[in-house]
Amino acid sequence: MTIPDLFAWAFQSRRDQPALDWDRTYTFGEIDARAARMAHVLRARGLQSGDRICIYLSNCLEFIDLYLASTRLGVIFVPVNILYRDREIRHIIGDADPVAVVTSEANQAHIPSGAALWAVEELRREAEAAPELRDAGVADGDFPAAIVYTSGTTGVSKGAVLSHNIFAFNAVNLLTCWRITASDRLLLTLPLFHVHGLGNGIHCWLASGCHLRLTERFEQQRAAGWMLDYGPTVFFGVPTMYVRLLDTAEQAARRIGARMRLFVSGSAPLSAALLEDFRRLFGHTILERYGMSETLMNISNPYAGERRPGSVGLPLPGVSVRNLDPGGNPVAAGEPGELHLKGPNVFSGYWRRPDATRAAFRDGWFRTGDLAVRAPDGYYTLQGRSSDLIISGGFNIYPREIEEFLAEQPGVKEVAVAGAPDTARGEVPVAYIVPCGDVRVAELEMACRTHLASFKAPRSFVLVDQLPRNAMGKVQKHLLPKP
Ligand code: MCA
Predict the structure, then answer these.
(1) For 388-411, how does the pLDDT look when each residue is reduced to its tens digit (9 = 90+)?
(2) For position 474, what pLDDT does the model report?
(3) How much distance in Å is there from the Cα of 127 to the middle of ligand 1?
(4) Ligand 1: which of 198, 449, 454 to mutate, judged by most atoms within 8 Å of the beta carbon?
(5) Three-state SS at 336
(6) 439 contacts 465 by C-beta, under 8 angstroms
(7) pLDDT grade for 155, boundaries at 50, 70 and 90
(8) Contact between residue 59 and residue 216 where contact means Cβ atoms under 8 Å apart
(9) 426 alpha carbon to ligand 1 midpoint, in Å?
(10) Has this prediction a pTM greater than 0.85?
(11) Does any ligand 1 atom lie closer than 6 A to the CB of residue 450?
């Protein structure tokens, strides 16, 4: 099924119903018409089915217009994290080879020269005056809808190619398993450039025909106020957001909890302590689930039944899960193994990277790189990762990328980056530097903040005489001193 077909019900039978609160309330009919006019603009600017378009925007109405228009035209949507800076953006543009990069005038300076830039303000003006394009029609559900870049273990990110079917399957699964219907009210503060906000948020909204309130981003000072004012029944968040919400006054938390039906958490591990603190304050047990950009949602605690602290729950319908030891043999219940996944939710591969794609699969199963234990009753608990990925505030960070960047800086002889625990963000990156000559930490920090996404900038820099290495020369990160 294509994404436009999945959304057709909401756009056809709920035309006059309120759909979205942004600067004002928009009906489904208005959202549909905006998308049709944006589709005309993109077509008039020459975009064809199979072309890529990069979107470097924070959450806004045009983000939605562009996504819907692209999926209707068969244009492949490539969202770029708005916190990315020159290196990260240059890599994605070079790899995805888009016809254009859409950004706001305020953010144009971050786009490396040479890329074709389309200002979102101009697209908005053109779309206001454009006729509606209605006969676009994308080929079929196997066609790519989006390429989502995931931080790569090789130091550069790879584009996971996600088809229309994958998004549709994921949305249908979540609607059923989490009981999302047209009478829900969804508060979405997650960024739309990741699959959590886009694949779960936008798709559950338009597949169910429920009501959405979208904000530009999550803001700790305002989040509880939004909830009190809007009265959401569903909230999707990362653990950092739930940590921030613990500051809510007791009475307000109770009022929010009374109207809420479901809090979902994902993108990073939710601790049992946070689950319990949140339950005490809001009167809700957060539903934790597990997903990846390459697969969307895989495993989820049940809507009814036990939401087990520390566990991500049971495989979603259609998703096959196996747990293997390093030799490729299935492990017994209670034993840790690497999670492998198969199902209609699994991507076909990385954009133009046959080698990386081959390495990501084993006998047709996707290797997640995550270690897990399966309880005798089928609940999965994630144990850690076989790679040294750091997750900070729900954003993935591969230390190798920061290490490569820092190694290029003057005064740095050797460098290792590791995650340090952080109460609010889960983990934060810390850099260990073996200096040569005169190294200035303030300058290193400034270089990271200028050229990398803010969440990748190490929170501290530790100068060391040498890095602990094993006989093979590999850095033993667990032996690094605590920052
Ligand atoms: C964070 N920052 C942002 C944003 N988010 N800036 C602009 N727009 C944003 N959306 C920057 C800030 O500039 C700041 O940088 C730093 O991040 C922390 O911001 P702060 O205000 O202190 O926020 P916080 O209270 O720490 O909360 C951060 C956050 C953010 C709002 C929870 O981390 C976030 O939105 N996380 C969601 C990530 C996500 O959607 N992941 C899904 C990946 P500075 O330090 O310079 O001040 S998809 C996925 O993982 C899979 C598939 C899955 O299963 O879902």
Answers:
(1) 889 999 999 999 889 989 999 999
(2) 84
(3) 30
(4) 454
(5) strand
(6) no
(7) low
(8) yes
(9) 12
(10) yes
(11) no
CATH code for residues 286-385 = 2.30.38.10
Domain 3-11+22-162: give its CATH architecture. 3-Layer(aba) Sandwich (3.40)
**Any idea which fold 390-479 has?**
GMP Synthetase; Chain A, domain 3 (3.30.300)
Per-residue pLDDT tens for 342-382?
999 999 999 999 999 999 999 999 999 999 999 999 999 99
Domain segments of the chain: what residues?
A: 3-11+22-162, 286-385, 390-479
Contact 133, 43 (CB under 8 A): yes
* Long-range contacts of the stretch 296-300 (C-beta < 8 A, 24+): 296/162, 296/166, 296/167, 296/169, 296/170, 296/195, 296/199, 296/200, 296/345, 297/170, 297/173, 297/174, 297/199, 297/200, 297/266, 297/345, 298/341, 298/343, 298/345, 299/380, 300/177, 300/178
Cα(300) to centroid of ligand 1, in Å?
A: 22
Mention every residue, 6+ apart, whose C-beta is less than 8 A from residue 301.
287, 288, 289, 307, 308, 311, 312, 313, 314
Q: What is the CA radius of gyration of the chain?
A: 22
The fraction of the chain above a pLDDT of 70, given in percent, is: 99
Q: pLDDT category, 139, cuts 50, 70, 90?
A: confident
Q: Is the CB of 264 under 6 A from ligand 1?
A: no
